[in-house]
Amino acid sequence: MGLVRDIMVNNVITIEHNKTAKDVAVLMTEKSISSLVVVKEGNPIGLVTERDLARKVSTTDRRSSEVSLSEIMSPNFRWVEPMTPIEDAVQRMTNKNIRRLLVLDNGKLVGIITETDLARYLRSKLLIEGALDDTTALNRKVVKND
């Protein structure tokens, strides 16, 4: 198959750990994304998603500007290295029932892969393999008819 580095998104949008839920919502809206990597001094310490916002902010009686990011982020993020085979990343996501994996190289954030990235990759791989199968079958048919 391929390696995580082949499909990861390199330009990961991050947010500093000392922000609020409102800051998260504004940045996600501006960037049209559904998750942010939470960083402290440039190092990833967590992940926050739209789901976190919806579930954890809407269940309080406080304004989003009063809810700290540390209250809604998930500090237990999963990660892989760029040279990890895609099959291993898929297996890890499936086993842990997660939708995103951070990509770290020597502890530094270098990318992220999501279910959507994996679906795009697998779709293109299936289409390519399907086209190759069609071409092979066509070649066999042409050879038989000669």
The gross shape turns out to be elongated
Helical content class: 40-55%
CATH topology, what is it called? Answer: CBS-domain
Strand order of the largest sheet: 1-2-3
Count of folded domains? 1
Give me the strand/helix succession. HEHEEHHEHEEH
- Counting DSSP H or I runs of 4 or more residues, the number of helices is 6
How far is it from the N-terminal to the C-terminal residue, by CA?
A: 35 Å
* CATH class term: Alpha Beta
For the record, what is the CATH homologous superfamily label?
CBS-domain
Q: Work out the strand percent.
A: 15-25%
The poorly predicted ranges are none
The Cα radius of gyration reads 20 Å
Helix-and-strand structural type: alpha/beta
Q: Calculate the mean pLDDT score and round it.
A: 89
| Assigned CATH architecture | Roll
Give a short account of the largest sheet: 3 strands, mixed
Number of strands: 6
